[in-house]
Structure formats: structure tokens, C-alpha cells
């Protein structure tokens, strides 16, 4: 029998986070063996891993769910993160520059160099584009900057700001909280000049044609497992609870391109 996995790569950016996510799912599996949760984990958001039949649950960005995987994956639940200024199963991004930068607003960043994590990232690109094109009506995103650098991750985008390789980046607020918790000194190098629109947070997904379990069952047991985590894991994850967010809700992300 092939090994089956849970993909936890969305926010497992360090060892503490990886352990905390694993503990959460291991406790969930012990509380409800009937869910048949895998006991092996992949710290990955690579497409081949996400769509693999061996990966029964994955934590992914909502934008590729509806733009790339709409015929393969379905959402089963979404975390409510404990972050100041945030309510419900949602998240947002910060527009960030170097602390030494003279940039005080997005409009002042015109003609400079911007970093995005990837073009299919809601938090690292799509809300950035939306802010330029829709909210601020500053023009076409791809033409607004002299150069747009794709970094592959929020942490890489932050490092490029610190290294003065880019002038501005759009950073997932949850990722930034996680990175700053592990490396507090990073906060001394950066300045937040704005905040994006709020979007539905990255969901846990399963295969559309062979779902591992029902949303209701998983949500109930995950919420119980959150209460049983040790204090360190609770502090690392900062998740209040899980709830269901529909596929149609995530479809709204496409309209914000």
C-alpha cells in the first residue's frame, strides 16, 4: 500500500511551525480514527505534490484552487488566524519597504522595482495588482513598476527588500508574523506602508473525485484538537478555530485580478 500524506507547506516555514501542524493533525487523527487521516506529512506546495493521489489533504493558496485546480480539488475547511485587525476565516497582506526607504505610499513606488512571491499567489501578487489597478486606480500593474521580480516565497521577497534588491513587496500578514516570530530582528529592517483588501484565507483541500472525509467531521475534530495542543504549538500556530468556506467564495478571488 502506498504511503498517504497531508501537505502542510503553506505556512510551515520553520521547524516549530512544521512540528505544530504535524501535532495538530496527529492529535486530530487520534481523536477520530474514522477520519483515516494520514500520519505522514509533506512540507510542500508544489503542484505535483498537491494533485498527487497520495496527498489526501493539502493546505494551499485560494487563488490556484480556483484558477488551476478547480476540477481536481475542493475546500474542506479554513483556519481563523489570531491576528490583530482580522476576523473570521480571512487574511490580508502588508505592502512593505525597507525602513530606510523614502517611500510612504504605493503611488510613490511607481517606476521602481517590486517583488512578488509568484503570479499565482493571492497574498503575494493578486492583492498587490488589485490595489494598484482597482483600489487606487494607478494603472496596469505590470506597467506600473520598472521591474517585477518573482522571488518564490514571502521570505525571499522580504530578504530582497533587506538586501536592497527590490523597493517594495506584498507580504502575507500571516507569513510575516511567522517569520518575525522566528527572526525578530527582521522587523527592524522593514516598514509597512499599507494593507491590502481582506481575502478568504488559504484553505485545506482534498481531492474532488475522492475526498478523504467530510468538511463537517474534520472541522469538528480539528477544533477539538486545537484545544489539546501544547502551549508552544498553540502560540506558534495562532489559530482560533476552523470553519467551512465554499468554493464559490474563493471564486471571487479571480475577479480581483
In short:
The protein folds into 2 domains: 5-83 and 201-256, D-Maltodextrin-Binding Protein, domain 2 (3-Layer(aba) Sandwich), CATH 3.40.190; 93-197, Periplasmic binding protein-like II (D-Maltodextrin-Binding Protein, domain 2), CATH 3.40.190.
Produce the secondary structure layout.
Layout: E1 5-7, H1 15-31, E2 40-42, H2 47-51, E3 55-59, H3 62-67, E4 73-81, E5 90-91, E6 93-98, E7 113-116, H4 122-135, H5 141-144, E8 147-150, H6 154-162, E9 168-172, H7 173-182, E10 190-195, E11 199-200, E12 204-207, H8 215-228, H9 231-237, E13 239-243, H10 247-251
Helix pairs in contact: 1-8, 1-9
Explain what this protein looks like in three dimensions.
The chain has 257 residues and is of the alpha/beta class. The protein folds into two domains: 5-83 and 201-256, Cypl, domain I (D-Maltodextrin-Binding Protein, domain 2); 93-197, Periplasmic binding protein-like II (D-Maltodextrin-Binding Protein, domain 2, 3-Layer(aba) Sandwich), CATH 3.40.190.10. Helix content is 35%, strand content 23%. The protein has helices spanning 15-31, 47-51, 62-67, 122-135, 141-144, 154-162, 173-182, 215-228, 231-237, 247-251; strands spanning 5-7, 40-42, 55-59, 73-81, 90-91, 93-98, 113-116, 147-150, 168-172, 190-195, 199-200, 204-207, 239-243. The protein has a six-stranded mixed sheet with strand order 2-1-3-12-4-13. A five-stranded mixed sheet has the order 8-7-9-6-10. Strands 5-11 form a two-stranded antiparallel sheet. Strand 1, helix 1 and strand 2 (40-42) form a beta-alpha-beta unit. Helix 1 (15-31) crosses helix 8 (215-228) and helix 1 packs across helix 9 (231-237). It is globular and about 55 Å long.
